[in-house]
Amino acid sequence: MRNVEAKFRCPEAPLAEARSHALAAGARSDGVLEQTDTYFHCLTGRLKLREIVQDGRSLESVLIGYARPDIAGARASNFTIVPIPDPAALQAALGATLGVRVRVAKRREVLWLRHTRIHLDAVRDLGTYVEMETLVGPAEGQRNDVAGAADDEEAARELAEVAAMLGFTLAEAVPGSYADLLVDQHPDGAPTVASCA
Questions:
Q1: What is the pLDDT of residues 45-68, one digit of tens each?
Q2: What is the pLDDT of residue 144?
Q3: Which alpha helices (DSSP H) does the chain contain, by range?
Q4: How many domains does the chain have?
Q5: Which of 47, 51, 62 is nearest to 98 (CA)?
């Protein structure tokens, strides 16, 4: 699977404003999730176990492997998602063999606008962010069977349009992942996070 994405720092008041702009533009809310991502050390790309809770109930757990350049602006990401029925066992196995790099906990509201997922994120120890991911490719190649833009170029155009609608420019985008930001913030050992803020 593939998308083109960007992430923006956004204090809480502008986050609410971005949400209002998205809804006014026709975005639909897909609910609020609590996600804990456990990142493992790996030789290439990134590997994380994502545990998702909604309304106090475990919704699903997935292993996500992805490769994406650490650049500001729109960046293409190739990713694979594998459902995990026993996240505790997998976390123990991968932790023992690869080692845990960092855990990231966030509260995320998911909005959909056209081919773009808009994430309104409150990330423990980092603050609030808006992350946007514009899907690329046909519906049958996507999670949840949602069709994407025809190609990376069309996705990048849509991403820039949605970002502008919410008050951002791609030049403001933050490079790297939440995991990278946490590790950079705590160079002597990134915090281990067990639950969402």
A1: 999 999 999 999 999 999 999 998
A2: 64
A3: 12-24, 87-97, 152-165, 178-185
A4: 1
A5: 47
